[in-house]
Design brief:
Layout (H helix, E strand, L loop, with lengths): L2 E9 L5 H14 L3 E7 L2 E8 L1 H13 L11 E7 L7 E5 L19 E3 L1 H8 L4 E5 L3 H6 E3 L13 H8 L7 E5 L4 H12 L4 E5 L2 H8 L7 E3 L1 E2 L6 E2 L19
Parallel strand pairs: 2-5, 6-10, 7-9, 9-10
Antiparallel strand pairs: 1-3, 1-4, 2-3, 8-11, 12-13
Length: about 250
């Protein structure tokens, strides 16, 4: 048996996020789903796995059902498969942020950088005038990254603003392109850079996972493997499972 895996997120106003935990947990349990979902006032984030029909039912309820009342009608979704169940249990957690930057003024629902489709990413990051930044932590970067990408050498995403203040200058770095695993960290990172006065900020829509799903290996500028937050550990082109690593990431779910 193979399992369907869904990586998902959306920034949305969820003032009632605490009340959503119990029915979301029940929904997932009913359909045999495992994995982790994070709920916060700013939205939802997580990766879940289960039978095809179960994942499809949960995703449909999130997007169009009564539980969220249409507030998750444009979730970022990426599907892949696993030969074995990649999660040991189901967790629905309540958090202050669905990805922790610790910058309260940053709101991706109000201000975000320019999305770049996977098909257009190679041309953008090949431009010598563009600063390319990997927003993930140093363990993830070590496993794989794009050519020319700067490594912020962070242990956690909340250290990203310190990297920006030390390394970048809005007057000097006119064009900045960023990427992450599934796109969520770049939503916040791009919003943060715009708030700091950077003029042109781009980010890879759907993240590395969308790029690996879309771009054939012979056209790829990706080097290495992409860490994922489940027991598969890493994915390659076509979102195919790769060999496991021995260390653990200190990052956050995509």
């Amino acid at each position: 048996m193979t399992y369907k895996v869904a990586a998902l997120y959306q920034f949305a106003s969820l003032a009632d996020f605490e009340d959503l935990r119990a029915p979301l947990l029940e929904l997932c349990e009913t359909h045999g789903i495992r994995g982790t979902l994070l709920l916060s006032p700013e939205g939802i984030n997580g990766t879940i796995a289960g039978p095809d029909a179960g994942i499809d039912a949960v995703v449909m309820e999130l997007e169009t059902g009564d539980l969220f009342g249409g507030r998750l009608n444009h979730m970022e979704l990426k599907f892949s498969t696993a030969a074995a169940m990649p999660f040991k249990r189901l967790k629905v957690r309540l958090k202050k942020e669905i990805v922790t930057l610790a910058q309260p003024h940053v709101d991706p629902t109000k201000q975000v950088g320019t999305y770049v489709a996977a098909e257009d990413w190679n041309a953008l990051i090949s431009d010598p005038d563009v600063v390319v930044i990997d927003t993930r932590n140093r363990f993830e970067v070590k496993m794989g990254t794009f050519q020319r990408a700067l490594d912020p050498e962070t242990r956690k995403f909340s250290q990203f603003p310190d990297f920006v203040s030390r390394t970048l200058d809005p007057a000097r770095n006119q064009k900045v392109a960023m990427f992450c695993t599934g796109g969520i960290r770049c939503e916040k990172a791009s919003s943060y850079l715009l708030s700091q006065g950077f003029a042109e900020v781009f980010h890879l829509k759907g993240g590395i996972l969308k790029y690996l799903e879309t771009i054939p290996p012979e056209e790829s500028l990706w080097q290495g493997e992409c860490f994922v937050f489940d027991e598969r550990v890493a994915l390659g082109h076509g979102l195919v499972e790769r060999v496991a690593a021995e260390e653990e990431s200190e990052g956050e779910a995509p």
